[in-house]
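Illustration: HTH araC/xylS-type domain-containing protein.
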Amino acid sequence: MAHEAHYIHPDLKISGFTEHFHKSDVLFEEHLIVWFISGETKIVQGGQTHLFGAGDTLFFPRHELVTVINYPKDGLPHRSVVMHLTAKRLEDYYAKNKVEVKPVPKPGFRTFGKHPLLQSCLASLVPYFDLRDPLPEALAAIKVTEAITILRTLAPEIDHLLADFGEPGKINLADFMEHHYMYNLPMTKFGYLTGRSLTTFKRDFKKTFQTTPQKWLTEKRLDLAHYLIREKNRRPSEVYLEAGFENLSHFGYAFKKQFGYAPTE
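Result:
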């Protein structure tokens, strides 16, 4: 993986990847703000692919599935500053800033581009990573509070997301799986996100789809890859990660077994 993470505080780190690329299907337990220092990042969510580079700032909501593919670029490794917005930090913040929490649609990740307010806030952390000692809690609190204030200024509706501390409730299993089958997560996570225990998830899945989760997931991912290759003229080496496969050779084997010919054909 060749991944390095340097923390100056539990909520603040610099993350780096030095490989050709690194792909992960992620489900963050906390809201994250990420500012890219160098490299390139491809985000895949909801059947859409988005590309970001140095200077861009993204916001990732907690409990939101997303595929992240990081690449070095221009001879530089992929590096980013990452800020965690913990529930405790947000609860303290909103205890002082009363907000009526209302239900909001699933937000997905959000880009703020190279907005100077967020960019300057996150970039100002970079010199602190040269410190030999951890960043004092008082200073870390100031920087996180600054970032929250900027988010609320740029997107006032984000209050209803940041101030919602509830856990996922039981939702429609079929709708969720049809929109999230391309993510490689443990079955326990799929269960958690649909408001079910592992045992209940497997039982409801069999009742809904008349098959096992693993078989259904493989077939759905192969159908997506087949569509992208045949209808969108994408190369197998481009689509196997987006479709939910981790290994190109395994993808080729499974594809040929399913359709009777290799994806390159």
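Reading the tokens back as a structure: The chain has ten helices and ten strands.
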